[in-house]
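hey so i finally got around to running the thing on that chain from the lab meeting. sorry it took forever, my laptop kept dying and i had to restart like 3 times. anyway pasting the input first so we r on the same page abt which one it is
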Amino acid sequence: MKKISIIISLLATAFLASCGSENTKTATDNAAAITVTMSQISENTNSPFLSVSGKIQSEKSATLSTRMMGFVTNVPVNVGDKVSNGQLLVAVNNDDLQAKKAQVNASILEATAAFKNAEKDFNRFKNLFQEKSASQKEFDDVTAHYQMAKARLEAANQMKNEINSQFAYTNITAPFSGVITAKMIEKGDMANPGQPLISIEAPGNFEVIAMVPESEISAIKQGISVDVTIKSINETVKGIVKEVSSSSKNTGGQYLVKIQLTKTPNTILSGMFATVQFPMAKTSKSTSILIPKDVIVSNGQLSGVYTVSQSNTAILRWLTLGKSVGNQVEVLSGLNANESYIVSANGKLFNGAKVSIQ
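ok and heres what got predicted. didnt touch it at all, straight out
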């Protein structure tokens, strides 16, 4: 009897455990169902375009330097100041040039006096020679002396022109009207030949510098119209391709393209980053699949999207992605046209999770 009681107790315990497990499983299955919203893929048949990053700069800009070495005596402008064409920007000490100029002026006075005296002798002996009152050798000596005096005077005048041209490098002036964008030197600093001192830009007209990969550069032609999106100010403006480089020797395999902006809002500033969309020729392979960027699931170098199986479970499908098109991205492989994918869920998705389509 005792053995029978033990067997009955074990069977009852097993039965109760089986019922509890079944109830737990059912509750878990019900709790695991996540409500999701689906979206169906549609093929993009619009004309394709290439999207590249670029940087805005002024069409007219200059960084000024000097050919002279000396202490800076004056910098009367600051960053942000508006300046006029010819306005003084930087003054470098020019005492040595002033001394050289004084020496050259003295040389000019001396050469001028010698030339005038030689010219009188030349004219006098010319008349005497015509009257046969002076020999050929005497006339030749006077002529040579006159020509040498004339040459010395010309050399002194050219030296004065050289000195005057050097003064332009001690008084740096604005080459055009604009705004000071950078100031790399202060009063009392030593200026060296070739050292950047100050930068100036002419406001109003801007261009975008973009780098295009070699696989796409053949489709970029001068004169085509492009869209330029400036995210920092939430503006999209039109531009015209005005320059296309034919060499990538010094740009790391990328080809430089310049785009002139046809509209320049006041909020645009030099140095802002932009996205340039170049229209591409439409071909039989132009049809592409696009999905929103915010539905992409990333895991290291892998990118994927959740789909739903026939048994209503979530499946993470890995994708090969292509170009970005605004807030969408091109799918090269992993999804086919007219398939559906999950765009939102009211819980955390994982492979095999039960889902309920809304």
